[in-house]
Specification:
By secondary structure, the chain is an alpha/beta fold. It contains 14 helices and 14 strands. An eight-stranded mixed sheet has the order 5-4-3-2-1-6-8-7, sandwiched between helices. It has a six-stranded mixed sheet with strand order 11-10-9-12-14-13, sandwiched between helices. Helix 1 packs across helix 3, helix 10 packs across helix 11 and helix 11 crosses helix 13. The chain is globular, with a radius of gyration of 21 Å. The mean pLDDT is 92.
Length: 397
């Protein structure tokens, strides 16, 4: 059984074709700058190297057409026809309270995902476009929605209920949902496997650090708390998102300074975080380079980022009544040694020491704490695509 995994962003599309008989990736690719000048598809195939297609890609439907053509290409493709694809799994950011598990996509499911657009305005719309495009181009292939929110449905009420009038939860579902669940689930299970431990015996803090960032407290294999909230805007500082702030800032800007709610929403989601503080970029590599050149605001942005991670790790150690392992994952977590070391500085009292040499690791599995550390620190590259493929294969069968 071969499963195609689709992960649509606002102007990008990541994909993998996975052979579920051995869970090996047959091909993986990225379509960038959809609807923007300079769009391209990059496909990497084991044994065939990397192939880049530079062409105009007007929308996500164009992107998916290009992906399907690349998969069956005689020169650099991996299958002979589309009939070899048994199912398609789609990453969907927000499923609300309705979905605590992955589901086969029907019209009703798609409408429910649309109902959650207000809760994830940056993510659900491109997820929906990807689903609709695939359904049009592959009408007879079963498709599955795998929700970022699902893993966090095990949170207890005292963790997910907002301290607001309770009727807002009862009437409108206002509560903490949490995101990046597929990633948190994968890396927490993977680190237990690497350590040779039963996950039911571990207290783990997982740090998913990319352009979007979230941490989770995983106790006994279940999420008991996570940093993102009602939407992916809450939690620690991110690339362009503010994270959690005093909500009175919003009413101050609207009532006292004449901002519209739309302007504030756009600012909090797209113009804040590392970009807003540094004034340089939302890309941490650019901000780090600027800081090294003496840009004080760039350095401040990094300092705030490290501080937010540090205090969240400490909070989750308290929530779980201890900690056994800290895991870093996603683009920044897997590759930025400085972010890891600065975020952990001052937390040694928890029971670990960072090994500077081991911490140079990038993009691969490895322990970065010293051998005598009671609490272990690991880098675990995330594999959300494999988690999506597993759920997709199970439901499609």
């Amino acid at each position: 059984m071969k499963t195609l995994v689709i992960n649509c962003g606002s102007s990008s599309l990541k994909y993998q074709l996975i052979d579920m008989s051995n869970e090996e990736s047959m091909v993986q690719g990225l379509v960038e700058r959809i609807g923007i000048e300079g769009s391209a598809l990059t496909q990497k195939t084991p044994g065939k190297g990397k192939h880049v297609i530079n062409t105009e890609i007007k929308d996500h439907k164009d992107a998916i057409k290009l992906v399907l053509e690349a998969l069956v290409n005689e020169e650099y493709g991996v299958i002979k026809s589309m009939d070899q694809i048994s199912a398609v799994g789609h990453r969907v950011v927000h499923g609300g309270e309705k979905y605590s598990e992955s589901v086969l996509i029907t019209d009703e499911v798609l409408n429910s995902i649309r109902d959650c657009i207000a809760l994830a305005p940056l993510h659900n719309p491109p997820n929906i476009i990807g689903i609709e495009s695939c359904r049009e181009l592959m009408p007879n292939i079963p498709m599955v929605a795998v929700f970022d929110t699902a893993f966090h449905q095990t949170m207890p009420k005292n963790a997910y209920i907002c301290p607001l009038p309770y009727e807002l939860y009862e009437k409108y579902g206002v509560r903490k949902y949490g995101f990046h669940g597929t990633s948190h689930k994968y890396v927490s299970n993977k680190v237990a496997e690497v350590m040779g431990k039963d996950i039911k015996d571990l207290k783990i803090v997982t740090c998913h650090l990319g352009n979007g960032c979230s941490l989770a407290a995983v106790k006994g294999g279940k999420s008991i708390d996570t940093s993102m909230g009602f939407t992916p805007l809450a939690g620690i500082m991110m690339g362009t998102r503010a994270g959690s702030i005093d909500p009175s800032v919003i009413s101050f800007l609207i009532e006292e300074k004449g901002y519209t709610i739309e302007q504030v929403d756009e600012m909090l989601n797209k113009k804040s975080g590392v970009l807003g503080v540094s004034g340089v970029s939302s890309d941490f590599r650019d901000v780090r380079a600027a800081a090294q050149e003496g840009n004080e605001r760039a350095q401040l942005a990094l300092d705030i980022f490290h501080y937010k991670i540090k205090t969240q790790i400490a909070a989750y150690a308290g929530a779980m009544g201890g900690i056994d392992v800290i895991v870093f994952t996603a683009g920044i977590g897997e590759n930025a040694a400085l972010v890891r070391s600065e975020s952990l500085k001052g937390l040694e009292f928890l029971g670990f020491n960072l090994d500077a040499k081991k911490n140079e690791i990038a993009g691969e599995i490895g322990e970065i704490s010293t051998d005598d550390s009671r609490v272990k620190v690991y880098v675990i590259p995330t594999n959300e695509e494999l988690m999506i493929a597993r759920d997709t294969a199970r439901l499609a069968q």
